[in-house]
Specification:
The protein contains three helices and 15 strands. It is α+β, with helices and mostly antiparallel strands. The longest helix is centred in the last third of the chain and has 15 residues.
Length: 180
């Protein structure tokens, strides 16, 4: 199918709804002619959603020093507790005192599925490593029995975050200072 010159793909789910994918927003449309429901979903991670979601879970009295999008890696007990069997997208922020992670829903990244707040004074261990790609950083943090593994990448293909590189730098530098 084409719509205005853009290719679209249709999938039918058991709910009877169709997902229409295009290079822009995703629209969820009910096939029932008596139901004119159309819900907007975000296709790309973006600045507006990142700012709104992180603001909604920011610890009271704190302000963000750096923000970026990332991927929370699967395999930790925390990820399994959130119901994630694979990697999930997230927005990450650091305040003066806390590492804040807004875990996004797998099929609707315009919604928060869960949150992780790790106060710096409770972090037992922080490791930051270079990833496979030159712009990738892997952050491993441990607080008691809570362990996370987070990937940050300066990638503009899947996210429309204007200051991703700057946000990554601030997050990594802030966490690096905790290691000392």
């Amino acid at each position: 199918n084409t719509a205005g010159g853009l290719a679209t793909l249709e999938w039918r789910f058991s709910s009877g709804r169709y997902w229409l994918f295009s290079p822009g927003p995703i629209w969820l449309i009910s096939p029932d002619p008596n139901n004119d429901e159309v819900n907007f979903m975000t296709l790309f991670m973006n600045e507006k959603d990142m700012n709104e979601m992180l603001a909604s879970i920011c610890p009271e009295g704190e302000t963000y020093q750096g923000k970026a999008w990332g991927t929370l890696m699967s395999g930790t007990a925390e990820m399994l507790a959130l119901g994630a069997l694979s990697n999930v997208s997230c927005y990450v922020g650091v305040t003066e005192k806390t590492l804040v992670i807004a875990v996004l829903e797998t099929f609707d990244i315009s919604r928060i599925y869960g949150k992780i707040l790790l106060p710096f004074d409770r972090l037992d261990e922080v490791k930051i490593q270079k990833g496979l790609m030159p712009s990738q950083r892997i952050i491993k943090a441990k607080s008691g029995k809570t362990k996370i593994k987070l990937s940050l990448v300066n990638n503009t293909f899947t996210a429309k975050i204007k200051d991703q590189k700057q946000g990554m730098r601030v997050i990594c530098e802030t966490l690096e200072h905790l290691k000392r």
